[in-house]
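Render this sequence as a predicted structure.
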Amino acid sequence: MSNEEIAEKWLRKAYTDLRVAEKLFEIGEEPWVIVFHAQQAVEKALKAYLVLHNRHFGKTHNLSQLIDLCSEIDQGFQQLYELEVDELYPLAIEARYPDTGIEITIDEAKEAIEKARTAISFITRKIESKKS
């Protein structure tokens, strides 16, 4: 399987996680699980970009590390920090556990979805421009 095909699979999974986050929001599910899927969506989209560029990323869920790796290829990825997309990682990971004291509001969940949509759209454009 080519890097393009693998990247496409990562990107499809990213969009699936985004749709799951949106549906969970629509039905009023717990905010922490919505944020988790939003984070997963961004993570998978970043990994799609890295796979397309034949860059190893190891076993990480850390969005800052993934953004930094993407930025080594294209400095434009730094704007994801301006959108505070990297903040989805600690929020999503910490909030999954009941003993962290972190509670996510529905407004934070909505914002997480918006950040994920924006990030995935940006990454998709970068992937499409590389493929053409």
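Summary. The chain is about 70% helix and 0% strand. Residues 3-131 form a domain with the Four Helix Bundle (Hemerythrin (Met), subunit A) fold (CATH 1.20.120.330).
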